[in-house]
Amino acid sequence: MSQGIVELTDATFDAAIAKGTVLVDFWAPWCGPCRTQGKILEELIAAGKLPAGVVVAKVNVDEAAALATRFRVMSIPMLLIFKDGQIVKQFVGVQQPAALLTALG
Length: 105
Fold this sequence. Notes:
Layout: E1 5-8, H1 13-17, E2 21-27, H2 32-46, E3 55-60, H3 65-70, E4 78-83, E5 86-92, H4 97-104
Parallel strand pairs: 1-3, 2-3
Antiparallel strand pairs: 2-4, 4-5
């Protein structure tokens, strides 16, 4: 079970996504839809609805511009699901809980 949302930086990103399933939310504090997406992610965690072992992480695109460039983040929020370091799903824009749970299933 996830303990909350992990903040990732350029320095911590690669190690964090290397093993298991990680949902990464690329966001910025000034982005209204990003705040909405953040609340949806927090609610999923609080409700214990995420599959076992899934880690939810955030990358602030203003603070980690190199990561935003690396993953071609053009619009936020952008969500990437990694399995053992590989991207398996990508979403752009606010995603509802059902879509995220289906993708993580």
